[in-house]
Amino acid sequence: MSIPKSVSTLSEFVEWVEAIGEKFTTSEGYEAPWFRGAGDSTYSLIPSLYRSDAGREDLADDELRYEFSRKALPLVAESHPRNDWEWYFLMQHYRAPTRLLDWTDSALVALYFALTSWSPAAKGKAARKPAVWALNPWALNRHHGQSGPVGPGWPEVDRYLPPSYEEKHIPQYPIALDPAFTAQRMLVQHSHFTIHGTDMRSLDEMSEHLGLQGGLFQLVIDADEDDIDYLRQAMTWLGITETSIFPDLEGLARELRLEYRLDRTRPKTT
After folding, report:
1. How far apart are CA 39 and CA 113, in angstroms?
2. Cα 130–121–104 angle (5° rounding)?
């Protein structure tokens, strides 16, 4: 089955997921894909720390990690992270700059993130399209001599998060890892991560070197504003809503705004 590069309906999206599943099935067995939604198909697979000039010029995010854990401690008194990795996952969860990229093993969750993070292009700008990426984490980790995703505490992973960057022992290329769930959102979002090493290029830029020619695909959601609105509504019929993705009061508030269409602005009057 060929892998489509764009779809416009939910049924076509499901067919794409099925095609990805077939593509990631080898003679050795099924290698479950991870998915990532993006509000703009031109976005590269690059972690937040490397998106800024400051992050690209200063690799040492150990200071960021220290400051986050030092100042966040009173805010997590009831569920204190137990190690550096749990602190790092918590940083990513609350959008502090890290070398992590979020992934999920739920294609519908990824699609929901793509649709809800999309916004119409500004006047005079080219129209943007949301997109969903599919990654074979087994294929990525074969580059590191691993048979599948690894976890915190593994020697191969701990080298990515040394106490100090003065040690200069961080690997060069990204690796796929399964996290310890430090927040309820991570559980309901079926969270997984890739973590970048010292190579600041996006994962898609490195795909050929990493042997991901058949293990990394992008799907563009080729739909206009009304179609995207409809797709968002269709997702709620499938049980994928703000409160199922963000099971807290903030998620409930956003869900009500969407349900009552309060995020649409009225046209200006003279």
Report:
1. 7
2. 20
pLDDT average, residue stretch 50-73: 72
Strand, helix or coil for residue 15: helix
Residue 134 or residue 69, greater confidence: 134
Asked if pLDDT for residue 77 goes beyond 90, the answer is no
- The CA-based diameter of the chain, rounded to the nearest angstrom, is 67
Specify whether the CB–CB gap between 131 and 114 falls below 8 A.
yes
* Cβ contact 185:179 at 8 Å: no
Please give the span between the terminal C-alpha atoms of the chain, in angstroms, as a whole number: 55
Residue with tokens 């003065």: 166
Q: Could you give the CA distance from residue 153 to residue 51 in angstroms, rounded to a whole number?
A: 27
pLDDT exceeds cutoff 90 at 139: yes
How far is residue 205's CA from residue 159's CA, in Å, rounded to a whole number? 23
Of 159 and 104, the structure prediction assigns the larger pLDDT to 104
Residue 56's Cα: distance from chain center in Å? Answer: 20
Distance between CA 227 and CA 64 in Å, rounded? 41
> 67 Cβ partners below 8 Å, 6+ apart?
none
**pLDDT one-digit tens code per residue, 162-219:** 876 555 678 999 999 998 777 777 888 889 999 999 999 999 999 999 999 899 999 9
The residue written with tokens 């720390």 in the block is 49
Q: Which percentage of the chain shows pLDDT scores above 90?
A: 48
pLDDT of amino acid 137:
96
Integer CA distances (angstroms), 215 to 22, 133, 157, in order = 12, 10, 21
Pairwise CA distance, residues 219 & 37, whole Å = 10
What CA–CA distance (Å, rounded) separates 232 from 130? 12
CA-to-CA separations, 217 to 127, 134, 199, 261, in angstroms, rounded: 21, 5, 21, 33
